[in-house]
Each structure stands twice: as C-alpha cells, then as structure tokens.
Amino acid sequence: MNTPSEARQSPSMQPPPIGMLAELTHRCPLQCPYCSNPVELTRKREELDTQAWQRVFAEAAELGVLQVHLSGGEPALRQDLEALVASCAEHGLYSNLITAGVNIGRARLEALADAGLDHVQLSVQGATAEVNDHIANLPGAFDKKLAFAAEVTDVGLPLTLNTVIHRANLHQIPDLVELALELGARRLEIAHAQYYGWALQNRGALMPPREQVMEAIDLVEAARERLKGKLVIDAVVPDYYARLPKPCMNGWGRQSLNVTPAGKVLPCHAAETIPGLEFWNVGEHALGDIWQHSPAFNAYRGTDWMPDACQSCDRREIDWGGCRCQALMLTGDATQMDPVCELSPYHDEIQTLAIVDSHKDDEFTYRRFSRQPA
Amino acid sequence: MSADIDAGGVPELQESDVVKIPRGVRLREDKARGGWVLLAPERVFQLDPIAQQVLMRVDGERDIAAIVDDLAQAFAAPRDRILADVRAMLADLITKNVLEVT
Ligand code: SF4
Ligand code: SF4
C-alpha cells in the first residue's frame, strides 16, 4: 500500500500525474552554482500572473495531481504567494514550499500557514555559515536560514531540510544530519548534484572523487538506519559513478509535470535542453490536454522510443532508460540509453570524464541572469 | 510518547496508545485514480480499503482499543486479528514518520 498507484484507464489515456512542480519565478537572492534552473533564466515580466497560476492549480487538481511543489528560483519573491497557496488548498492540493529561507519573516510565514500551506522544504547549501554562504554566494544566508527553520517549527509546520551535495560540501554529511535533528526537521534530503544547467557548467568545480562518493553513500545509509522513526532521510544517489541509471522522474510523462515561470509545461525541469521538442504553454492549452497530447510529453513516454538494448532489458520499466537530458548531453542523442548504464557504449567515457573533472580545481560560475537589458 | 521505540525503530504499540495524523500529512480521497491516499512530504501512500478504514478512525483522541472495537463491530471480525493487523499497520506508518503517538 505504499507505492503510488497505476491508474486503471483505457489504453489510449495516460494515467494522470501525481505531482506538479510549479516554478513560480526564476528570481532568487542566492546564486548556487548547481542550480537546476536553465542557464537562460526567465525574467519577471514574462512570469505568469496570479490568475493564470490559480487556473493552473484548478486544472491540475481536476487532472488528478495530488501534490504541488511551489518552487523557483525563490517562490517567496512572488508577492502573491499566499494567494497561490490558498488556491492549492482550495482545490485540495497538498502544497510544499521549496524555499531558500532568507526572505520570509514571521508574519508572512504565519500568513502562508493560515492560507493552508502543508509543508516547508528549506534548502541549506552547507552545514556551516562558511560553507553555506560561499556556495550560495550570499553572506549572512546561513544565519537567516537557521532563524527561518526555527520559525517554521515554532509555527507548527513540518520541515524538510534539503542539501545538494558536491565536492565543496560532501565532507559535511554527518554535520547536516546533526543540523537536521537540531532544527527539528522531520525529513532530510541529501541530493547529489545532477549535472544539467548550471551544474553542468560547474562540473569541474562540483564533481567529487569516487572514493568520497562511496563513503558518503555508506554514511547516509548508516544514519538512515540509526534514525528510523525519528528522521526520514532520502538520498538522491550520484549518477556518474553508478552502473545503473536512476529512474529519472519515474519515467518521462508518467507521474509528474513541471510548469515554468512563463507557463511552459515540461516533463522534467531540464527538458528544454533537448532540441526539437515542442512544449505547450498553459496560456494556450488546458493542462489535461497538454498532459495527454503535447508532443514533448509523448516523445519519450513508455518504451517504444527506446534503443534495442533497453527494449530487451528487464529494467526497461524500472529505470525507463534513465535520464533523457543526460543521454543528450553526454551522447548528443536523447534517444540513447542514459550513459550511466553499463550497457551504454558511452559508459566508460563518462566515468573517465567524472574522474577527470573531480581532479580539476575550477572556481564556481555563480548562477545569475545574463547581462542583457532587463 | 508512551510507546517504546526499540533499537530497530519499530514501536511496540499498547492498546491505550493514541495515535494521530500529524500536521503535514493528509488523508484524502483520490478521485482520479480511485481509493484513498495519505499525502506526506514528497510521498504518496496509496491505501488499501482496510488501511483507509483504520485511518479514517484515527482522530488523535480515540485510543487503539477503541478503534479496534469499532472495526471489530463494523466488520463483524474477530477482535484479536484486527488488533494484530491494526498494530502492525500503525507501527509501520509511525516508522515512516506519517503517524505519531500523542
Ligand atoms: S538552487 Fe540556489 S540559486 Fe537556484 S533557485 Fe535554489 S536557492 Fe536559488
Ligand atoms: S539497458 Fe536500458 S533499461 Fe536496461 S538498465 Fe540500461 S538504461 Fe536501463
């Protein structure tokens, strides 16, 4: 009873999505070098307005979405965040605020809680001010985050701590576990950087050495066992050193969708990196229509698009051939199997690439808007 | 908390324990797919009809004995068996941090 269900519907209909990532804005006070936003960020004037988002939430609920992740950039830079949370609540959607926690004061937090917010996911870039503020490129950020976390638990909202792990903070995993406990988080997410977008540009500064990654996996496993019932620890395993790909998004267009600040609907947040895909916008199509019929969602649904090696593999409906964006980036072809897979002709190449990058000494390229007239 | 958490983290629930669905976890019907779900941070638990019946009675006030009595009556089933099932199910959800002992 603990896995999301497969829907029983006519074969021509796609089972409805369970989760939706709503990227409310790309604006953010932080500049994390692994940020999952695209390198070309969307500007404020192109963002969907309040009413458009409210309509999206209504359509999402109608379609069968159960959980909405209000994300960004920094979603709290939207003045209408309370109204958007209220709209989720009105439609019975479970709302999760994904925030960097540097710009939400007590009064606003209470207003969000009153509007029906279900859960707060706070990102920390490291377990100490020094590491955190360097990675976020924002002095004082860590102290603000600690204060915010205390307010969240004080208001009575459940808290998840999330950290993206890479070479500059991998050594802090035990400290992050301690921090999560101290802050009263019920859940800790340890997510190894996924190398798209900004992280891809920063791979030479972020990629950890193999031995340290393996050590980190053991540390997380041990902590998870030890803290069962006290702290849920979810780990996103590092990719490049693995032998089998991750089930990216649990399969393309199977369980979730992603709406960008400008209203484009994507199967995953990096999907726009794949050339030639046609994405539909909530301004022109109903969400249900997009889910069922948009070319981008149907491009890699199911198993028909897969290369022969995947078609004849037992894992084809377990990992769904891995990540399309990663296949594209590393092989130049989005219909290749994820090169993390041992059976990929590119497998050795990417392992070598990871090892080479892990020995580089690059500086961070911080995430920011490109210098074009605003 | 009156339930003891043993070394493995699985709570030994007493009939007098009262459990509740904490803030941040929600029980609701899933019309699109049918059935009921428990929504938790980043997780969706699809409930079988029995789990649904149990959780609909979890209100943070009734103790486990009362919930079991009610179920035994509603389904005309032996109380011992229901008690064992309910205990195992609730303990499992407590371990997953989606239920709490008050
Ligand atoms: S990863 Fe960092 S820069 Fe990107 S949106 Fe989150 S907090 Fe902002
Ligand atoms: S061959 Fe394809 S389906 Fe099989 S493990 Fe590799 S990527 Fe997954």
Automatic annotation (TrEMBL), chain A:
Pathway: Cofactor biosynthesis; pyrroloquinoline quinone biosynthesis. One of its GO terms (biological process) is molybdopterin cofactor biosynthetic process. It catalyses: [PQQ precursor protein] + S-adenosyl-L-methionine = E-Y cross-linked-[PQQ precursor protein] + 5'-deoxyadenosine + L-methionine + H(+). Binds 1 [4Fe-4S] cluster. The cluster is coordinated with 3 cysteines and an exchangeable S-adenosyl-L-methionine. PROSITE patterns: MOAA_NIFB_PQQE, RADICAL_SAM. The keyword Iron-sulfur applies. One of its GO terms (molecular function) is cyclase activity. InterPro entries: 4Fe4S-binding_SPASM_dom (IPR023885), Aldolase_TIM (IPR013785), Elp3/MiaA/NifB-like_rSAM (IPR006638), MoaA_NifB_PqqE_Fe-S-bd_CS (IPR000385), PQQ_synth_PqqE_bac (IPR011843), PqqE-like (IPR017200), Radical_SAM_PqqE_MftC-like (IPR050377), rSAM (IPR007197). [4Fe-4S] cluster binds at C28, C32, C35. Its EC number is 1.21.98.4. Pfam families: Radical_SAM, SPASM. The keyword Secreted does not apply. Its cofactor is [4Fe-4S] cluster. Interacts with PqqD. The interaction is necessary for activity of PqqE. This is PqqA peptide cyclase. The gene is pqqE.
UniProtKB/TrEMBL annotation, chain B:
The keyword Zinc does not apply. It holds the Pfam family PqqD. Coiled coil: none annotated. InterPro entries: PQQD, PqqD_bac, PqqD_sf. Pathway: Cofactor biosynthesis; pyrroloquinoline quinone biosynthesis. Keywords: PQQ biosynthesis. The keyword Oxidoreductase does not apply. Gene3D superfamilies: Coenzyme PQQ synthesis protein D (PqqD). GO terms for molecular function: quinone binding. GO terms for biological process: pyrroloquinoline quinone biosynthetic process. Monomer. Interacts with PqqE. This is Pyrroloquinoline quinone biosynthesis peptide chaperone PqqD.
